[in-house]
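Entry 12.
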Amino acid sequence: HYPLRRQRQMCIRDSIYTKSNTDRAEELYYLAMEHQDAARYQEGLKIYNYMISNNHIFPYVYQNRADCYSNLGKHNLALRDLKIEIRLNPNNSRAYYSIGNSYYHLEHYKEIAISNYQYSIYLMESGKDSKYRDAYSTPNSDIIPWAYAMVAFEVANLRMNGSRKRLPSECQYANKAYQLNYNSDTLTCLLYTS
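Predicted 3D structure (tokens):
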């Protein structure tokens, strides 16, 4: 067993020293994404911070760090990262949707949340975000019906609070959200409460 253990140690040591910085950064990136999925956002945040501070910028790294911040309730920090993401990828519909979510949680910025949800919808439906498309790009994916639903929900809340500003029709947005994803019980509940 001794020669086998020594051989395994040498392989591990060799693999550590032969990996490029890019390979190590990519491993950290995927490790951080695993921490997000496992709801260990604090650990994922440390990894994203390390990557960004060492200029290992992968696609969506700022957006992913913003997701960590949002899940930790740090919406102002999430907004800062999402605005950087928009500068890097100006037509990223998912980033605009996330900005809407951050403003939604900050309470006093409902109109700004609505306009970001609407712009996210515009980018998705017009196809202008095609360069940045991923799992969010298909019309019946999770993000677009939720963007419609959140506009409907926010507009309904503003109307109930007596807003006299010119607002879009919440019924049109609610119907569109329901048409795009009529199987989602959670989405249906949100629409019926708006």
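Annotation: Residues 155 and 167 are 7 Å apart (CA to CA). Residues 143-160 form the longest helix (18 residues).
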